[in-house]
Amino acid sequence: MKIAAQLFTVHDYLGTKEDLDMTFKKVKEMGYDYIQLSGAGYIDDEKAKYVKGLLEKYELIMCVTHMSFDQLDNELDALIKYHKLWGCDYIGIGSMPKQFPRDEKGYKSFAEWANNIGDIVSQQGLTFVYHNHSFEFEKYNGKIGLEILAEGFNNHVQLLLDTYWVQAGGANPASYITKLADKIDIIHLKDYGIKNYEPYFAEIGSGNIDWQDVIKACNQARVKYAAVERDKGEIEPFESLAISRKYLKEVHGL
What we know:
The protein is 44% helix and 20% strand. The protein has 254 residues and is α/β, with parallel strands linked by helices. The longest helix has 19 residues, at 104-122.
């Protein structure tokens, strides 16, 4: 399993060419050889070519992205071109958009939309992935939303399981990695902490997720990439990525 930096963690530092260059340089120096592009805003030809140059400059590999619903829905051909330029095999969406109600019918409709995207990108050698949050763990007629999606997605759509949000949904991350193994090539490693009765996004190894069980489940499921992420927190975001990278390397040999 290869460890990536989920750049949404440092999304405040992706707005300009100078910021992008600094960010790619910093994550490489931390020991990340893989990245996920997310939070960089609208992607056009100029930005795509610039990102390609940074990948080459810092010898980084882009393993997956999160793209906006609007761009996926309206400019899919351009996104396919950019992913092929980057050598990135997985194109993703960060959440089920507001156009789809959060109910059983909405999940099924979204699965149909995702399958259409997956079918199109698969013809170009790409795989479409869906990133979960905690709302997918609400039950509808005894079945949680994540299960409705997993059953509705075809072979060209996968889940990008997020450990924090699985835990926040009241479920066990390792168990769900095992349960959905045939639908997961990539996961988000994100720790879940508690302070003053409130949950918070913790650096990997400093929260309450059992990482030994999670990593064991990932290995058994043959997960290819694990992207380190922290949505927000008191620790500076680059430092957060560095702390998590050090923990995974020193404690788990990753």
